[in-house]
Design brief:
This protein is mainly β and about 140 residues long. It is built from no helices and twelve strands. The strands form three sheets. A five-stranded antiparallel sheet has the order 1-9-6-11-4, with no helix packed on it. Strands 8-7-10-5-12 form a five-stranded antiparallel sheet, with no helix packed on it. The two termini are about 25 Å apart.
């Protein structure tokens, strides 16, 4: 099992311009870049929790360019490892290696958008999900 030290939080640059900001996400020469599998956006509504999943192989690089999202990460034994809020006011990248359980909650009443840049494409058999989430939602 990967340790909590493998979960990385990387501050990202926001470049302000008069016609709209530029927000960095991931460069291939950064340690969090382990190859490219796919990139996708996930939306989470205000007050809603999504997730409680564990990837067997995938490393997730999660960025919230719009809104605010709280992430809760558990180790393989389902013990709390980390809670972090990222988004427009704390613009950074959260890197979660494989074999960690995680879920996230939308905190902004406007849109909450998460970008995941993963090292492998999503494959249904590669991810485990917790069906009864009631107990784990207490972490939020």
């Amino acid at each position: 099992m990967k340790s909590v030290k493998k979960i990385k939080i990387s501050k990202l640059n926001k470049i302000k311009t008069k016609n709209g900001n530029v927000m960095h996400a991931l460069k291939k020469n950064e340690g969090s870049f382990l190859g490219f599998g796919e990139a996708y956006f996930s939306f989470v509504n205000y007050g809603k929790i999504k997730g409680w999943k564990k990837h067997k192989k995938m490393t997730c690089n999660l960025i919230v360019p719009l809104g605010s999202v709280k992430f809760v990460i558990l180790n393989d034994k389902k013990k709390l490892m980390k809670k972090i809020v990222i988004g427009e006011n704390n613009y950074c990248r959260l890197t979660i290696p494989n074999n960690h359980w995680f879920a996230f909650k939308g905190l902004s009443k406007n849109k909450n958008i998460i970008l995941n840049i993963s090292n492998i494409p999503h494959v249904r058999d590669e991810v485990q999900e917790i069906i009864d989430k009631r107990l784990f939602n207490l972490y939020f």
